[in-house]
Amino acid sequence: MIIELLIVLLALYVGSRYGSLALGAISGIGLAILVFGFGLKPGTPPTDVIYIIIAAVTCAGILQASGGMDWLIQIAERLLRKHPDRITFLAPLCTFTLTVLVGTGHVVYTLMPIIVDIAIKKGIRPERPCGVASIASQVGITCSPIAAAVVAFVTISNANGFDVTIPQVLMVTIPACLCGLMCAAAASYHRGLDLDKDPEFQKRLKDPAQREYIYGGSATTLDKEISKESRRAVYIFFGALAVIVMFAVFQNLLPSYNTVKAVEDAAPLVVGNSHVAISPEQLAAEKIVIPGVTVASVTKLKMNLVIQIVMISAAALMIMFCKASPKKAVAGAVWQSGMVAVVAIYGIAWLADTYFSNYLDEMKLMLADIVAKYNWSIAIVFFLVSVLINSQGAVVVAMLPLAYKLGIPGPVLLGVLPSVYGYFFIPNYPSDIATVNFDRTGTTVIGKYLLNHSFMMPGLISVFVSTCVAYLISSLIY
Predict the structure, then answer these.
(1) Which one of 118, 151, 346, 418 is at 20 to 30 Å from 164 when CA atoms are compared?
(2) Direct distance between the N- and C-terminal alpha carbons of the chain, in angstroms, rounded to an integer
(3) What is the pLDDT, as a whole number, of residue 146?
(4) What is the pLDDT of residue 20?
(5) What pTM value is reported for the model?
């Protein structure tokens, strides 16, 4: 059991070192070793979550291809340039909101150079808004109605007896994460030396080439013309989000279907003198109701299918009526990063489910007492797993089923949901690396000792405060 766990951890570590698609693909090597080498029964790949991600990412990618994303960035830039002295607080609010709306944190790459430009022109140390803004772009994932982490939490929770909806999750995560981000922004407000008092920065300014590089350029999207088709695409996208939230709140509006299910442990039905055996599953497929063998029921359309139908339909409408090019969408950062997330979740979650499902009894024996006494301690597990896995959706899919099987109540797990973001701890995530490169002053850094980087302090404060507040809100509600 320990050797196989080391194989799982090694696969995740090696995959994280290569990054991108490698995280999911190298997890496949670990899965192959467990199945073919140690004879473990394969777990179940998270197909429902993957389908939702594909639909949501396709819709967001088409929105980007239509130019609608540029309009959202322009709105955010106008707000930031109107209040440059408050950029340390407004920048994370903008990146957080963009992620909530679109479901991925990769939309911030256009906004980050603008944040740097505003900070430099105002004389504010760019590390202050940039560090917390990069954190906020990922924190927003647990607050988005179409993000994999939220949808996976709702889907897995409903399957385990905790009937929670997407709006109910957002009622907990959004206020909690906003509290965490504002605390992180407050801690960053006077972080480091001001630019005019920073000896390292002043030394760089003595070089004319460096001065021109720092102060000569200007990043903006305000000069970009937004077409009516781009605006129309945003309206369609927001309309799709509104429809999803409406169905999640008013589930009585969802269509219902008459279904027949086989009774568990029901024996095959023997028919006639020929003793032909018909399985309960065959009878259920034919919608034949026989007491003790099959049972009729009414089933509502599931929300995971609602999200897929609405997102794909919205993407089609944007293609037809907003001049959104599918080829441009496929080449865009949003669609590509989303497909990378699909592969990562596919490999990581399948590997984790294979290991944990084969050792569930042992896990219960080892962890049951601790978890029963300190339910909140599962937050530490979520955070540590996220340090290795650069995907909050993958952490939820991989670890949430185990948490339910350990007997942790659903409201507790909802309360600790913000703790699934820990991959800022090791600064190898694309948004963090890009932020360092965008900061022309060199104040946003990855330190000499790797962990002393610009994202550590705001990340720890944000996740800690968000988790505590979410746990309190969930406790009060449930």
Answers:
(1) 346
(2) 37
(3) 85
(4) 67
(5) 0.81
User: Taking a C-beta distance cutoff of 8 angstroms, is the pair 470, 414 a contact?
Assistant: yes
d(CA 150, CA 250): 18
Cα separation, 325 vs 319, whole angstroms: 7
Per-residue tokens: 211? 């001065």
376 vs 373: CA distance, rounded Å: 9
CB neighbourhood size of 219 (10 A): 17
Q: Compute the distance between CA of residue 339 and CA of residue 50 in angstroms, rounded to an integer.
A: 10
CA trace torsion 143, 144, 150, 152 (10° rounding): -160
Q: Measured at the alpha carbon of residue 181, what is the angle toward residues 249 and 192, in degrees to the nearest 5?
A: 170
- DSSP string over 21-55: THHHHHHHHHHHIIIIIS-PPP----HHHHHHHHH
Report whether 167 contacts 125 (CB < 8 A).
no
If we measure between CA atoms, which residue out of 144, 128, 122 comes closest to residue 89? Answer: 128
Contact between 132 and 106 (Cβ < 8 Å): no
Residue that has been written with the tokens 């995971």 in this structure: 304
| Cα torsion 203, 207, 211, 213: sign | negative
Neighbours of 405 (CB within 10 A): 15
Round to whole Å and give the CA distance between 196 and 194.
Answer: 6
At 318 the pLDDT is 95
- Distance from C-alpha of 450 to C-alpha of 433, rounded to nearest angstrom: 12
Q: CB of 475 within 8 A of CB of 411?
A: yes
User: What CA–CA distance (Å, rounded) separates 269 from 99?
Assistant: 54
In angstroms, the Cα distances linking 432 to 108, 377, 389, 394, 446 are 11, 28, 15, 19, 9
What is the model's pLDDT at position 255? 87
What whole-number distance in Å separates Cα of residue 155 and Cα of residue 463?
Answer: 23
Q: What share of the chain is helix, strand, coil (3-state, %, to 5)?
A: 70, 5, 25
- CB-based contacts of 273, cutoff 8 Å, min separation 6: none
Give the model's pLDDT for residue 273: 62
Residues of the chain below pLDDT 50: none
pLDDT at 397: 87
- Measured CA to CA, the distance from residue 320 to residue 64 in angstroms comes to 15
pLDDT single digits (tens) 383-409:
988 887 778 888 898 889 889 988 899
Give whole-number Cα distances, 243 to 145, 155, 174, 357, in Å.
11, 18, 19, 36
Asked whether the beta carbons of 149 and 390 are under 8 A apart, the reply is no
List CB contacts of 306: < 8 A, sequence separation 6 or more: 244, 247, 248, 254
